[in-house]
Amino acid sequence: MTAALAIDGLEAGYEPGLPIVRGASLSVDAGEIVAILGPNGAGKSTLVKAVAGLVPVFAGSVRLAGAEIAGRPAHLLARAGLGFVPQTDNVFAPLTVAENLELAAAVAHVPVKSRLAELYALFPDLEKARRVDAGRLSGGQRQMLAMARALVPAPRVLILDEPSAGLSPKVVGLAFAKLVEIAASGVAVLLVEQNVKAALAIARRAAVLVEGRERVVAPAAELAAPGVLERLFFPVAEKAGA
Amino acid sequence: MILQVLADGLILGSTIALGAIGLTMTYSLLRFANFAHGEYVTWGAYLTLTFLGFFGAMAPLGPFSFGWPLLAALAASAAATAVLALALDRLLFGRLQHHGSAIVLTIASFGAALALRNLLQFLYGALPAYYTRELQIAIHVVPREIGGGLRVTPDQFFVLGLTLALVVAMHLFLQRTTAGRAMRAVAHNPALARVTGIDVAAVVRWTWVLGGVLAAVAGTFAGLVGQLRPQLGFDLLLPLFAAAILGGIGSVPGAVIGGLVVGLAESTAVPLVGAEYRAAAAFAVLIAILLVRPQGLFGERAR
């Protein structure tokens, strides 16, 4: 079976000659949740931004349902079925909730009314707040809107950059429950997370990224065992302690 | 007298408002102050004059000093000014955007403004020009006994009416249409706009087109109720910036209100402190408002 998203030997960064992502490889199947974990500065965000077309790709391949997409412009990737939820500033604050979603539907050429009805069924809170400016939403509602906005074109792959950042534990639980629901509908979900415990609780597999390359890709249950992640995140400390 | 001053201020403010809409939109999308915007106003005014020459003799339309040829010339000039704005973006701003900072773009726009103004003066000469030599009889709208009376020419009514129509159309465009919402989205967050599927480069092009069209209309209005001079747009530049900043950068209603406030401040300054200080009055109002609301009347607070 062709993976929904297949990253192979990806090198990417902001300045040519200074790659932050250095040969990362990873794949996500339809209906699967894969988490990218790793210490600060490992290149997790840069990796997903490069996949989404926001950061220049220097080498390697990214395939969306088998089609090569590495280095293609972000707006074409969004229309081709790759949804991306940035970590911060991920809604259009001056636009209302409904305008955020209608705009995404209009540019993706999907029927606005029926698609919004489906998304309001998935996120009932958004329907209640549909006339509110997105800038006035609570942190949790904002994250739901950001996810709904990315889901408007019915993407094959949904990528989220630290969706739990700044949210209360209760709201993280709600947001991650939605991700499980979204994956169950057949969407491949790839998320970068600092909140390791919450991420491993919903992910089938996880990749540990260190210095721009995956150190290991393993079933989430294996990585959740005590001490495993610490050894993978900080190999130097382990050597020093040995 | 007070009514007349207010009416004069609104008419001047209409021209400033139309110019300021384009300025505030390009500023919020491209994040640099385009000093060449005033020259789009001048070029728009003179291009209307040129197209008017192509369309031949003009029979006045009803009470106005102009006929259908002026409206046709205005439409052609609006299209040509949009092309001018696009060309400048293609040749200059678009190239500098990739490796230049906002200050580089601003200084480049200053240079472009000088080049455009001198080219215009070379082509058209420095003497004032007029669209029509028809005399306009001002209509007594309010008798002298009430508030000093109010006299308005039909052309001035036309300017106010078309400005109002254009402002309402712009507002509906930005609020209701996909293209308008996409412009607001790109102004707010270009990266998020891209991952939402919006072609940011296309949105930027459309913004230049709109800015050019409105500048051409503003210039033609200024020429219609006054005269055509090569300094027309340059003299309007500071009021345009004052209006855009006063209203809050990126806000179209703000640019319109800002334009009217600046126009009114200038016209009320004339009987109070004399015509030579009218520009200073506009800036005194600007400074006073910014001290109270640094983000402008409708602007978002800086993040």
Shape of chain A: globular
Query: Which CATH-level-2 architecture of the domain at 5-87 and 157-241 in chain A?
Result: 3-Layer(aba) Sandwich
As a percent range, the share of strand residues of chain A is 15-25%
Count of the separate structural domains of chain B: 1
Average the pLDDT over all residues of chain A and give the rounded result.
Answer: 92
**Class by alpha and beta content of chain B:** mainly alpha
Q: What would a concise description of this structure say?
A:
The complex is a heterodimer of chains A (242) and B (303). Chain A has 242 residues and is α/β, with parallel strands linked by helices.
Give me some keywords for this one.
heterodimer; A: 242 residues; six-stranded mixed β-sheet; four-stranded antiparallel β-sheet; B: 303 residues; mainly alpha; globular
Question: Care to describe what's here?
Answer:
The complex is a heterodimer of chains A (242) and B (303). By secondary structure, chain A is an alpha/beta fold. In chain A, 39% of the residues lie in helices and 24% in strands. Chain A has a domain at 5-87 and 157-241: Rossmann fold, CATH 3.40.50. Chain A contains eleven helices and ten strands. A six-stranded mixed sheet of chain A has the order 6-7-8-3-9-10, with helices on both faces. Chain A has a four-stranded antiparallel sheet with strand order 2-1-4-5, with helices on one face. In chain A, strand 1 and strand 2 (21-28) form a beta hairpin. Chain B has 303 residues and is an all-alpha fold. Chain B is 73% helix and 2% strand. Chain B has helices spanning 2-30, 37-55, 68-99, 102-124, 154-176, 178-188, 190-195, 200-225, 232-247, 252-273, 278-292; strands at residues 139-142, 150-152. Chain B has a two-stranded antiparallel ribbon with strand order 1-2. In chain B, a hairpin with a 7-residue loop joins strand 1 and strand 2 (150-152). The interface between A and B is medium-sized, with 28 and 18 residues.
